[in-house]
Amino acid sequence: MNIRNGYLLLFWTWSTVAAYSQTKYWIFLKDKNTTDAPAISPKTLQNRLQQGLTLFDETDLPVKKKYLQQLQAADCQTLNISRWFNAVSARLTAEQLQAVQSLPFVSKVQPINGQFYIAKTQPNRRSAMAPVMTQVQADEFKKAGLNGKGITIGVIDAGFLEAPTNNLLKHIFDRKAILDKRDYVNPPLTYSDKFYTTAETFSDFHGTEVMSAISGANRSESAQNGLATESQFYLARTDHGTREFRGEEDNWVAAMEWMDSLGVRLINTSLGYAQGFTDPNENYQINQMDGKTSIISQAAQMAADKKGILVIVSAGNEGDDPSWRIISTPADAQGVLAIGATNQRYWNRIGYSSIGPEFLPYLKPNVSCFSLYGTSLSAPVITGFAACLMQANPTLTNKQLINLIEKSAHLYPYGNNFVGYGVPLASRALALLQNPAESGTTYAREIKASGTSHTLKLPGTSDMVSVFHKKNSMHVLTQEVVRLRDGQLTIQRQEGETHTTIDLKSEVIEIVWE
């Protein structure tokens, strides 16, 4: 996990250091028993039937017990078991690695690369969500009686310390809306109350903050901090916070498979892989953020395509890092909804928010919204947004939900790799629910221009507007805030600019330069 925000490791032992001195590997196995029953619940099958998906395939079959027993006999203690990839993870010495590679049922062995990172800033225990609630028009959902009731949300994160005593989450625990929890970092604590009380790093509060942004509410003050105040949850802790060792992607995959087996259709994960290892050779490279290279992107895409799960992921907080700048994985997977962060006032990209790589043939991030404390807290807002839409129409598939959320965003259809299609708006989403055939372009217009500048009359518009200068229809050269003079806006065309997006919040204008 790549922590660049001064998170402090509180507890560490030499035994832990010794355990992590071994290298962690994926061990991929050759086959499965096709006569085994799929390791999924009736609820999972019901969800897939409703979405018109294949009910189950080989990825749902359990890993062969015989293979697990033979690995154990070879002194290989498995950490996590993946039925999706027919693989297990384990820490191996050089000698153990050689022995495992020689087993006839092992197809390949590869090191687990990458590192998780979360928000750059110190944990925020104050309520900072009121501005974004206004931005996404939370009152529109409230007036429609939508609050995520009946929707189950999975949260995969770095820790849920003190969640039961958090004022914004008290209502969740009072109605026993946490259905189950698992700790993949400290497996003996999986079913223990220590899940909420073990303090190892400051990042152990991160999942608590994420939950607050999804469903937080202070009943005594009648204050709403999240959109899905009536949802129920499965929680998984998959990341330790400040260990600079091999990544914990196997924990993430295990949590995804666990939630899929229970029939969870909506998962928020405000974690991501990028770089930051002590050994630079273990870092991901920029060209590997392609939606296909990392195991967790493959898992996220499988969840989207085969399991019908809407995976909502923070885009990343590397926008200000000149050596990286782009989104992390699994936000790079085409099938996930990757969420960036905007400025509160102008709704353009806030500096830290990661940018979509230009080599992707699809748009990333998908949408964005305001967050002062990282994309880790913008993704949960959109998770709550999605829960309200699922409540309004439970038959919507994950792909239909992504399409609906993108169409409801304020820049649609003129998205870019800085903020995606912009900020989703509840009023537009509800209108689209009422009229699914709507194109989503009601608030958009396109004009042609030539030369080096163009002037538009925009009476009644705010005196300052956001402008995206683009090298093509999708990729931003620069963004700026431009002042209107006497109700007129003059756009100066930049070198290499072919498209310009003018963001009026209530309307979007696209200039196509000829």
From TrEMBL:
Pfam families: Peptidase_S8 (PF00082). The active site is at 157 (charge relay system), 206 (charge relay system), 376 (charge relay system). Keywords: Hydrolase, Protease, Serine protease. The keyword Protease applies. Residues 148-422 form the Peptidase S8/S53 domain. This is S8 family serine peptidase. Belongs to the peptidase S8 family. InterPro entries: Pept_S8_subtilisin_bacteroid-2, Peptidase_S8/S53_dom, Peptidase_S8/S53_dom_sf, Peptidase_S8_Ser-AS, Peptidase_S8_subtilisin-like, Peptidase_S8_subtilisin-rel. PROSITE patterns: SUBTILASE (PS51892), SUBTILASE_SER (PS00138). It comes from Runella salmonicolor.
